[in-house]
UniProtKB/TrEMBL annotation:
InterPro entries to which the protein is assigned, alphabetical: AAA+_ATPase, ABC_ATPase_HisP-typ, ABC_transporter-like_ATP-bd, ABC_transporter-like_CS, Ectoine_EhuA, MetN_ABC_transporter-like, P-loop_NTPase
Coiled coil: none
Source species: Streptomyces tardus
Gene Ontology MF, one: ATP hydrolysis activity
SUPFAM superfamilies assigned to the protein according to its UniProt record, in alphabetical order: P-loop containing nucleoside triphosphate hydrolases
Keywords: Amino-acid transport, ATP-binding, Cell membrane, Membrane, Nucleotide-binding, Transport
Name of the protein in question: Ectoine/hydroxyectoine ABC transporter ATP-binding protein EhuA
């Protein structure tokens, strides 16, 4: 599966009013790769993840995931705006973990994880339960499956959110600053789980983070964003030790 293009942004422009957030943006992510997006606040990193989740639409350009257009579909050889059904199908391939864990507060941990596999993928309750139990083991929360989210720490809630995203077996996992709402002592536990997933599964990851040592550990590629464009990309070794672009050097000098 490695080496095949999974995500493609083709000349994508996104504006909010006069603010051009993404400017004719081109980039690709191959299947199985772990890519980290870095760059100053406001450079458009979260906007990219939100476009992939179809929470936003580009003003210009196209985005494909697994060769399928996200916001368009082909009908009679023509590209037309995608219908709800098409968007739902493409979205099944994409999991996202947000800064705020966004768990269902009225459901116990196990049910938080089984809900979408049952309702969206049509798994039986037993199949979804087995899948959820395996994932709870992976994130180290087996003994908490009968609790409500409010009975867990923020770090534990975030690990449930990771398990919930993985339960859909997405091709790509989007991670948006997943530790930035956590107390410092809870960050390591969440990053350890994500390192484990990055190193033991073939899931594609697209990650926005300020945790540079984590980015170094898991990334195949690091993309530096500035003013809506990728101004430099490369291996973590290259990007963190010897970046070419002055703006990258300046940014990393400020955050490392
Ligand atoms: N819904 C929105 N309406 C208007 N402007 C928005 C909206 N969402 C984002 N923006 C603007 O788009 C720009 C890029 O935001 P984005 O959140 O993608 O940046 P970012 O690189 O993720 O920043 P950070 O590191 O601070 O999270 C910012 O100027 C932001 O104010």
């Amino acid at each position: 599966m490695d080496g095949r293009e999974l995500i493609r942004f083709d000349r994508v422009t996104k504006r909010f009013g006069d603010n051009v957030v993404l400017d004719d943006l081109e980039f690709r992510v191959d299947s199985g790769k772990h890519v980290t997006l870095i760059g100053p606040s406001g450079s458009g990193k979260t906007t990219i993840l939100r476009l992939l989740m179809t929470l936003l639409k580009p003003d210009e350009g196209t985005i494909t995931v697994g060769g399928e257009y996200l916001t368009h579909e082909e009908k009679n050889g023509k590209l037309v705006p995608a219908g709800e059904k098409h968007i739902r199908e493409v979205r099944k391939n994409i999991g996202m973990v947000f800064q705020q864990f966004n768990l269902f507060p009225n459901m116990k941990v196990l049910r938080n994880i089984t809900e979408a596999p049952v309702n969206v993928l049509g798994l039986s309750k037993e199949e979804a339960d087995t899948r959820a139990r395996d994932l709870l083991e992976l994130v180290g929360l087996t003994e908490h499956m009968d609790k409500y989210p409010s009975q867990l720490s923020g770090g534990q809630q975030q690990r449930v959110a990771i398990a919930r995203a993985l339960a859909m077996r997405p091709q790509v996992l989007l991670l948006d600053e997943v530790t930035s709402a956590l107390d410092p002592e809870l960050v390591a536990g969440v990053l350890d789980v994500l390192r484990d997933i990055a190193h033991t599964t073939d899931i594609t990851m697209l990650c926005v983070t300020h945790e540079m040592s984590f980015a170094r550990d898991i990334s195949d590629d690091v993309l530096m964003f500035n003013e809506g464009k990728v101004i430099e990309s490369g291996s973590p070794d290259k990007m963190f030790n010897d970046p070419d672009h002055p703006r990258t050097r300046e940014f990393l000098g400020a955050v490392l």
